[in-house]
UniProtKB/TrEMBL annotation:
InterPro entries: GmhA/DiaA (IPR035461), Phosphoheptose_Isoase (IPR004515), SIS_dom (IPR001347), SIS_dom_sf (IPR046348), SIS_GmhA/DiaA_subfam (IPR050099). GO terms for cellular component: cytoplasm. Signal peptide: none annotated. Belongs to the SIS family. GmhA subfamily. Its cofactor is Zn(2+). SUPFAM superfamilies: SIS domain (SSF53697). Its EC number is 5.3.1.28. The lineage of its organism: Eukaryota, Metazoa, Spiralia, Lophotrochozoa, Mollusca. It comes from Potamilus streckersoni. Transmembrane segments: none annotated. Residues 43-201 form the SIS domain. This is D-sedoheptulose-7-phosphate isomerase. Keywords: Carbohydrate metabolism, Cytoplasm, Isomerase, Metal-binding, Zinc. Its main location: cytoplasm.
Length: 201
């Protein structure tokens, strides 16, 4: 394969077109756009009432959860005060809980330890069936913490476990994750704009 090989260029084009098709299908459903607006409103509300956002996921979804949290504690588009968010990604916590209790508890133990009513949790699972994400949603519900699930495929068990959920219309994990980060970026952007109008900042 070379960069001048028509087959190679067509293969690249096909993958971008596939990503475009998933995005177009996602945008065609108004409920999906409503979910993103709800998420932005909740981020805004949590911060205004002195709460924090806890995000989590596995593998690439953990990277997205970390990416999301650092854009709140750091910055997105604007210089402003740091906003309270944390991704469950500390290796010492993950290895301790996985070793002592099992990997399915790595996120729920964090929520139990640091979460409180008034916070919000955001869990990412491309299948919607990750046991550790589901347990974290269960812990959040017991504690009165509002939860949002970002999923794909058919949404899996997250449809029942979380207070709000969204299903990206794809069976391919990489396409689902691409939409997940667009959802998170848009929610941060809208929440940041709202918060910039407040004396809080």
């Amino acid at each position: 394969m070379t960069t001048s090989d028509p087959a190679a260029l067509e293969a690249v084009r096909a993958r971008f077109e596939e990503a475009q098709t998933v995005l177009e299908k996602f945008m065609a459903e108004e409920d999906n756009l409503t979910f993103v607006a709800k998420l932005a409103i909740e981020i805004d509300a949590v911060i205004r009432r002195g709460g924090k956002i806890i995000s989590f996921g596995n593998g690439g979804s953990m990277c997205d959860a970390m990416h999301f949290a650092e854009e709140l504690t750091g910055r997105f588009r604007h210089n402003r005060t740091a906003l309270p968010a944390v991704a469950v990604s500390d290796p010492s916590h993950l290895s301790c809980v996985a070793n002592d209790f099992g990997y399915e508890y790595v996120f729920s133990r964090f929520v139990e330890g640091l979460g409180k009513p008034g916070d919000a949790v955001i869990g990412l699972s491309t299948s919607g069936n990750s046991p550790n994400v589901l347990r974290a949603f269960e812990a959040a519900r017991r504690m009165g913490i509002r939860s949002f699930a970002l999923t794909g495929k058919d949404g899996g068990a997250c449809r029942e476990a979380a207070d709000e959920y969204i299903v990206v219309p794809s069976d391919r994990s990489e396409r689902i994750q691409e939409i997940h980060i667009k959802i998170l970026h848009t929610a941060i952007d809208l929440a940041e704009e709202s918060l910039l109008q407040s004396p809080l900042l």
